[in-house]
Specification:
The chain is an alpha/beta fold. It has a domain of about 180 residues: Ribokinase (UDP-N-acetylmuramoyl-L-alanine:D-glutamate ligase, 3-Layer(aba) Sandwich), CATH 3.40.1190. It contains nine helices and nine strands. Strands 3-2-1-4-5-6-7-8-9 form a nine-stranded mixed sheet, with helices on both faces. Helix 2 packs parallel to helix 3, helix 3 runs parallel beside helix 4 and helix 7 packs across helix 8. The chain is globular and about 50 Å long.
């Protein structure tokens, strides 16, 4: 079993962040480990507060993992401030894990700034060059590049620009476009278009966290980047299709749907 590390924030309602990452790693047959960067106050209705973990404790958590355990892949999620970003970048440069997937989490669905505006340049300069795969959604890609994205062509333009910032592969998620959910993967020379079906559900909490974690787990399990991304897209599509409500707002995806189905716990 491969060991996969998530470096991200905690979501108190369990649909996104560290909790979604751990569920996803486990669903892919990998051992889940975590470094917590922040504790958020949130539920299905939104994010209402955030307490950042000190850079020293973040660095210590990373040291504790890498000095003891073999790490096959790392997923980086919520990194809200410059000190957090620098601490993570310093340690990733020190330990040089093979597979780093970075989800540039910036704003929650409810509009809460999960990345402080002044920290954006630090993310671009310190973390993007470390990414084997970077996984921005459209608002994040727009914030990183300054390009207004309203179609596939502009997604490709943004991917090329982000690649020039140092990311080895750029996976731009098109869920914010109208019609079907088409994503693209750019490897520096060619664009792979990944069409996807859009499901009629409001329960999409944690989709970005989940797909980036699925990519990391797939890389840890030995898949190529292209196959890791394709399999992750299939996984999140199934999780969204069978998502469910747990509160008054945006519910989570179903991370273990296929496992429950194979175990005979779901009757359709």
């Amino acid at each position: 079993m491969k060991n996969v590390l998530t470096i991200a924030g905690s979501d108190s309602c369990g649909g996104a962040g560290i909790q979604a990452d751990i569920k996803t790693f486990c669903a892919h047959g990998t051992y889940a480990m975590s470094v917590i960067t922040a504790v958020t106050v949130q539920n299905t209705m939104g994010v209402f507060g955030c307490q950042d973990i000190s850079p020293e404790i973040i660095s210590g958590q990373i040291d504790a993992i890498f000095t003891d355990i073999d790490v096959s892949a790392v997923k980086v999620g919520m990194v809200s401030q410059i000190g957090t970003i620098n601490a993570i970048a310093d340690k990733l440069e020190q330990y040089s894990p093979k597979n780093i997937v970075i989800d540039p989490v910036m704003i929650s669905k409810s509009g809460f700034d999960l990345l402080k505006p002044e920290a954006k340049n630090a993310l671009i300069k310190r973390l993007i060059p470390l990414a084997k795969v970077l996984t921005p959604n459209l608002p994040e890609a727009e914030a990183i590049t300054g390009i207004k994205i309203e179609n596939i062509s502009q997604m490709e333009e943004a991917a090329v620009k982000i690649h020039s910032m140092g990311a080895e592969y750029v996976f731009v998620k098109g869920g914010h476009l109208e019609n079907d959910a088409t994503d693209i993967l750019f490897d520096g020379s060619k664009v792979i278009t990944l069409p996807g079906k859009r499901f009629n559900t409001k329960n999409t909490h944690g989709t970005g966290c989940t797909i980036s974690s699925a990519i990391a787990a797939n890389l840890a399990n030995g898949l190529s980047v292209e196959n890791a991304v394709k399999n992750a897209k299939d996984y999140i599509s199934t999780a969204i299709e069978h998502s469910f409500s747990i509160g008054k707002g945006v519910g989570p995806t179903n991370h273990f749907y296929m496992l429950y189905k194979k175990a005979g716990m779901i009757n359709e």
